[in-house]
Amino acid sequence: MRRQRESVVFRRPVQVERIPDGGRFELDAGTLGEITQALGTSFTIHVDGRLVRLKGADADAIGKPVPLAPAAADDEPGDLQARIWRTMKTCYDPEIPVDIVELGLIYGCELSPMEGGRTSVAIKLTLTAPGCGMGEALGNEVAEKVLAIEEVGEVSVDLVFDPPWDRSRMSEAALLSLGM
């Protein structure tokens, strides 16, 4: 599988997250990088021998338009649970070009009614490796996107590691896209 990389120059100072530990730091204007992945609403960029994740809201820092979240969440009024799962499919592991649902990182999604007609959503998320520091970033992205669905009133995302994740949790589509 051949992947294209795009060279970029950071046009302004910007906060990024180091992959895989999730540490945040600032990159200076003029820093050179290569986009390795631009999926969902964030960018994975190779900078000075390391990978970093740039939030889509900061896309202007590399001369790109802010990526819009796919309209999957509100495209049809039907089943709320189905719309939540479609929304979670817009979240990507920053190192693997497959969404977190197809990777099998979502262990559960429970809905509970709230007063006022809204819904509380409890999501169980795991990581491909327990030591990965990107859990907080992925959890926050999932929570923000699901909370943007009109009927959702609150979201909790719990990071779980039991049972441990392994490749058997990946969908057939994920395995095929990764050439496995």
UniProtKB/TrEMBL annotation:
Question: Where is each MIP18 family-like domain found?
Answer: 82-157
Gene name?
A: sufT
Quote the protein name from its UniProt record.
Putative Fe-S cluster assembly protein SufT
Ranked from the top, the taxonomy reads: Bacteria, Pseudomonadati, Pseudomonadota, Betaproteobacteria, Burkholderiales
NCBIfam families, alphabetized = FeS_long_SufT
Q: Name one Pfam family in it.
A: FeS_assembly_P
Against InterPro entries, the record matches this protein to: Fe-S_Maturation_MIP18, FeS_assembly_SufT_put, FSCA_dom_sf, MIP18-like
